[in-house]
Amino acid sequence: MTTSDWRKMFTQLNAKPVKKAKYTKHNQPRTRSCGVTLRKCKNCGRDGGHINKYGLHLCRQCFREMALNLGFKKYS
Predict the structure, then answer these.
(1) C-beta of residue 68 within 8 angstroms of C-beta of residue 75
(2) HSE-CB of 48 using CA atoms within 13 angstroms
(3) 49: left (phi > 0), else alpha (psi -120 to 50), else beta?
(4) Which domains are delineated in the chain?
(5) Which residue, 33, 39, 40, 63, is the most exposed by fewest CB within 10 angstroms?
(6) Are 63 and 42 in contact (CB under 8 A)?
(7) Is the predicted pLDDT of residue 5 greater than 70, yes or no?
(8) What is the mean pLDDT of residues 46-57?
(9) In 3D, which of 27, 34, 21, 22 has the Cα closest to residue 7?
């Protein structure tokens, strides 16, 4: 179950508070203190292909779009 849809069951469980508490205990996403999922692109929110160097915090796709505006040059 993904982080976006674990709350969809709340509409059915609002009438049953004990079952709702048990459901949230076992199904809510973990709070992470380290790892890949904490480093997200500040432009689009992706967490894969992340460029953290120079404090950019961009995914590789957004970096390609913004590279010339940021002052990077392409050498081929």
Answers:
(1) no
(2) 0
(3) left
(4) 1-31 (no CATH), 38-70 (4.10.830.10)
(5) 33
(6) no
(7) no
(8) 90
(9) 27
| Helix runs in 1-76, H state only | 10-13, 17-27, 60-70
In one-letter notation, the amino acid at residue 41 is C
Per-residue pLDDT tens for 11-25?
888 888 999 899 888
Report the candidate in 38, 44, 74 with the shortest Cα–Cα distance to residue 60: 44
Q: Is the CB of residue 64 less than 8 Å from the CB of residue 51?
A: no
> What residue type is 21 in one-letter code?
A
Q: Tell me the backbone φ, ψ of residue 75, rounded to 5 degrees.
A: -110, 125
